[in-house]
Design goal:
The chain has 333 residues and is an alpha+beta fold. The protein folds into 2 domains: 3-190, Endonuclease I-creI (Roll); 213-323, no CATH class. 58% of the residues lie in helices and 15% in strands. The protein has helices at residues 3-11, 19-33, 52-66, 97-107, 114-128, 147-159, 179-189, 192-243, 251-262, 268-273, 281-297, 308-324, and strands at 34-39, 42-49, 72-79, 82-92, 129-131, 139-143, 165-167, 173-177. The strands form 2 sheets. Strands 1-2-4-3 form a 4-stranded antiparallel β-sheet. A hairpin with a 5-residue loop joins β7 and β8. The termini are far apart.
């Protein structure tokens, strides 16, 4: 059964205990699903409801509120894509208790008690509401088709601390989005089982989202490490070919270069642990950056220049000495 239908079945199991809340539900059904007509025989109201159980609730509400058995005519209408139950109350002559109730429903405003406003929202959902499967998104909607009914429901939801939105399709619809908004309105309507089910779905979705975020971060870090290692190996190979061997590099740089060639996919911390003595990650990063800088700063032998290995060794040793010098030494000046 769809989540929306399950929620409605849960809400239909019990009638409100207070007479004021029963009247508020009746007023909501009249506002969102009722049509008032004045005929030569008297006043009548026609309700179009989506479920037989909602029609039965309407019948019991009339009995509870007015203490009389109204005249009801139920017609089963077949329409493309859905079914509707039409319930007609009346026509009744003027002065009849049901006629007075029908006139009051036509002029009834928004209930002022908080419990009555909760009942108003609940009845509006039973008549014209729908819930999206929580596994897809958090969305509840009232497809009212009446601008006046939309404004009344929006005022009611705002008075309960919610932030409804309105769209103009098919005469008007009101909706709430977001897990917190949907959870709050389910609690206000009294749909406890639906609330727990949605909460469970939200927890599972958050856990999956956290797991995916961690996996994506780990994958990105691994990809970054591999790409940096490949760049470092390429730079070391260029230096090795240019200088005629890594032994022409300063000892500290040569040691790190050989370690990177032996372990092309190790992290900086793992690489530092294999050195003797072991080196911190920042120290390994510093030496690898120097190797890449030396590889990027060399050019092909120019006419009249010294022997490439000797020239490279002299420049590399000077650069290495300057980089290894402590802060404030004359080599940095």
């Amino acid at each position: 059964m769809p989540f929306s239908a399950e929620t409605k079945e849960e809400l239909l199991r019990e009638l409100p205990a207070r007479s004021c809340c029963q009247a508020a539900e009746l007023a909501a059904l009249a506002a969102v699903a009722g049509r008032r007509q004045v005929t030569p025989e008297g006043v009548q109201f026609t309700f179009e409801l989506p479920q037989a159980s909602t029609a039965r609730r309407l019948f019991h509400l009339w009995k509870q509120v007015d203490g009389v058995r109204p005249w009801l005519q139920v017609r089963f209408l077949r329409r493309p894509g859905h079914r509707t139950y039409a319930v007609r109350v009346g026509p009744v002559p003027p002065g009849h208790p049901v006629a007075r109730r029908l006139e009051a429903l036509a002029a009834e405003g928004l209930p002022w008690r908080r419990c009555c406003r909760r009942a108003y929202v609940r009845a509006a959902f039973l008549a014209r509401g729908s819930l999206v499967q929580p596994a897809k998104t958090y969305h509840i909607e009232w497809d009212l088709g009446k601008p006046v009914a939309c404004e009344a429901l929006i005022d009611c939801l705002r008075s309960l601390g919610l932030a409804p939105r309105q769209v103009s399709r098919r005469g008007g619809a009101v909706y709430l989005k977001g897990a917190e908004q949907v959870l709050t309105v389910l609690q206000l309507m009294g749909a406890r089982r639906a609330l727990l089910q949605l909460e469970n779905v939200r927890i599972v979705k958050e856990m999956r989202s956290d797991a995916n975020r961690l996996v994506n971060a780990e994958t990105a870090n691994l990809d970054k490490t591999v790409r940096a290692a490949l760049d470092q190996i390429e730079a070391i190979r260029r230096l090795e070919a240019r200088l005629g061997g890594l032994e022409h590099l300063p000892p500290g740089l040569a040691e790190v270069a050989r370690a990177r060639l032996r372990q092309p996919y190790s992290s900086l911390a793992e690489l530092g642990a294999t050195l003797r003595p072991p080196m911190t990650k920042s120290g390994v990063r510093h030496r690898l950056n120097r190797l890449m800088a030396l590889a990027a700063g060399r050019s092909a032998r120019e006419p009249g220049s010294a022997d490439p290995p000797a020239q490279a060794r002299a420049v590399d040793e000077a650069a290495a000495s300057a980089a290894d010098a402590p802060a404030g030494s004359p080599e940095e000046c």
